[in-house]
Amino acid sequence: MKLVFAHDHKLRLIDGKYYTVGGLRDSITDRYMEYFDSLTIFCRAIEKQPYDTQLFELKNPKIKVKPVSNGSLILSQSALRMMKEEIKNADALIVKLHSKIAEYAIMYARKYKIPYLVEVVGCPWDAYWNHSIKGKIVAPIMTLSTKKEVRRAPYAVYVTKEFLEKRYPCDGEWIDCSDVELQSVDETVLSRRLEKIQRMGEQLTLGTLAQVDVRYKGQEYVIHAIAELKKRGKIVKYKLAGRGSNQYLLDIAKKYGVDNQVEFCGVLSHDQVFDWLDDIDFYIQPSKQEGLPRSMVEAISRACPSAGSTAGGMSELVSSDYIFHKANVNEIVNLIDSLTKEKLTQEACRNFKTAQNYKKEVLDAKRRTFYKNFAERCWQHKQGEI
Q1: Contact (CB, 8 A) for 182 and 301
Q2: pLDDT of amino acid 71
Q3: Residue 191: exposure state from Cβ atoms within 10 A (0-12, 13-18, ≥19)
């Protein structure tokens, strides 16, 4: 059977080959190829970017990439015709929302009665509203269109357990299944964390793993918070890892007089991420928009005490005492100032237990059952049985 996938994902086109920063690597598309014979991807394609440090080549010979733009969200008539013909002759469509390319794909799937499934991976309201002035204009439009498309989708997969389901409900069949998968973690990870907490001195080291040049990630509020903590006589170190220019955040740190407490660690490889998480004392995700952040799931898998904002599904990962309102510096200050070894120990144990729900084998089994059911319905439709 022929499957089409559509999303605004930006693949890198390098010497005639396509690469992904991670979201469409072969291990991800293998989830679909288990049930379909071929896959055509509609997305955007751009040149390699200066901040690209780790790219994954799309090597599966059963996958065809058909870029519909070189970065712009405005699609040409020729691109739309290409999408229409491909979907018209497909047996199934899978899309990620929110996405304009996905919305066009759904339009053609509905027109030609092609079975389709939507993966709901983020909130367009939070994403656009916190992006820019232009984003605030786009936010209500994209939010309403996403609500409409998810509501009438015959199949939906949510990456959160409650957050996206409440904002973008689906009348069809759906499951919650995170796209963040953890390999089995040895219990010694928790033991080492508890030992680390007991050895801690007075200085606490915070960490955030996110792009440092995307302002809705919110690192500036943590920098402001450690400046306020400094006034209270509490010196806190803040390590930031992630791609992008750090100039804006560095200027913020200098403004508040804490640039000597802020360390930019750059881009980390997948293996380096876990060593980095093991090295910090407390993980914090101050984003103004999220779905279910991979970095926080990875943090709790290392039994790292963690806190996050009210954005996205972070309240599904950590206890309510460790959730603060978006951009609220005072709440961050009070939360960090209240930490004790006893509290850190309690959260380390709780977080490690929660992380077990995101093991690869657990999510694979759940996802496989749902996608198998979807593929069977597609086959029945192809045979004219439904």
Answers
A1: yes
A2: 63
A3: exposed
CA atoms of 54 and 22, how far apart (whole Å): 8
For the chain, list residues with pLDDT below 50: none
Tokens 């793993």 belong to 209
**Distance separating alpha carbons of residues 144 and 268, to the nearest angstrom:** 37
Q: How far is CA 22 from CA 39, 138, 276, 370, in A?
A: 17, 27, 20, 23
> What pLDDT shows up at residue 22?
83
Distance between CA atoms of residues 29 and 58, nearest Å: 9
Tell how far CA 170 is from the center of its chain: 20
Q: Beta strands 2-14 and 38-46: pairing type?
A: parallel
Q: How many angstroms separate the CA atoms of 102 and 292, rounded? A: 20
Query: Six-digit token pair at 172?
Result: 């069809």
Provide the 3-class DSSP secondary structure of residue 282.
strand
Sheet containing 262-266: order of strands: 262-266, 236-241, 204-209, 282-285, 306-309, 323-324
Residue 99 and residue 53: Cα distance in Å, rounded? 25
Non-local CB neighbours of 52 within 8 Å, separated by 6+ positions: 12, 21, 243
Cα-based distances in Å from 298 to 56, 223, 283: 20, 22, 10
Buried b or exposed e, range 122-144, using 16+ CB within 10 angstroms: bbbbbbbbbbeeeeeebbeebbe
So what's the pLDDT on residue 263?
97
- For residue 371, CA distances in Å to 352, 364, 365 come to 28, 10, 10
Q: How far apart are CA 164 and CA 297, in angstroms?
A: 17
How far is CA 159 from each of CA 163, 178, 367, rounded to the nearest angstrom? Answer: 9, 4, 11
pLDDT score at 69: 81
* Overall residue count recorded for the chain in this entry: 386
E strand spans, 86-162: 92-97, 116-120, 155-158
pLDDT in the model for residue 27: 86
Rounded to whole angstroms, how far apart are CA atoms 292 and 244?
A: 21
Tell me which amino acid residue 364 is. Answer: D
Instruction: Compute CA distances 155 → 6, 158, 245, 373, whole Å.
Output: 15, 10, 39, 10
* Residue 53, both tokens: 């440090």
| Type of residue numbered 137 | I
What's the whole-model pTM score? 0.85
